[in-house]
Design goal:
By secondary structure, this protein is mainly alpha-helical. It contains 4 helices and 3 strands.
Length: 144
């Protein structure tokens, strides 16, 4: 999925771009099943909240092949190439996790991923279900 010039402009101006249905539904379903199984098994490493619920499973690219398959889908890579150019690297030391955002408010404060950018770095957030501010989505401040 090559991005259009208006989409590229939106990303550069606002710092994010929503690309609905960039993954096939079969991939989304397999991702959800795998994540839910890892949660049920409490497959380490995981992060718990204060109530003991798992809120994150870490090192997902090393867990099951579906995670790397999702990260290297042609449509996703085409969109990233529109923004970064052809030299795309998948980094495992940043945002290599699945976060579970629950319907109840969490104590996660706003944060900025990096104060000073040293090179082009884009985080891809793949939502596996419909989400909004009432059910725990990640909130982005446009232009920040």
């Amino acid at each position: 999925m090559r991005l259009t010039q208006p989409e590229i402009h939106h990303f550069r101006h606002n710092g994010y771009l929503k690309c609905p249905e960039i993954l096939p539904s079969s991939t989304v379903n397999e991702l959800k099943e795998t994540i839910l199984q890892d949660i049920a098994d409490e497959s380490a490493p995981v992060v718990h909240d204060k109530t003991g619920r798992i809120t994150r499973i870490s090192h997902i690219l090393d867990r099951a092949p579906i995670f790397l398959q999702a990260a290297t889908q042609a449509a996703l890579l085409d969109a990233l190439e529109s923004l970064l150019g052809p030299q795309i690297e998948l980094v495992k030391n940043r945002h290599n996790h699945a976060t579970l955002n629950y319907r109840v408010p969490t104590s996660d404060p706003f944060h900025r991923d990096a104060v000073q950018w040293s090179r082009s770095l884009i985080s891809v957030v793949l939502y596996l279900e419909e989400t909004n501010t009432q059910n725990g989505c990640t909130q982005v401040v446009p232009g920040s």
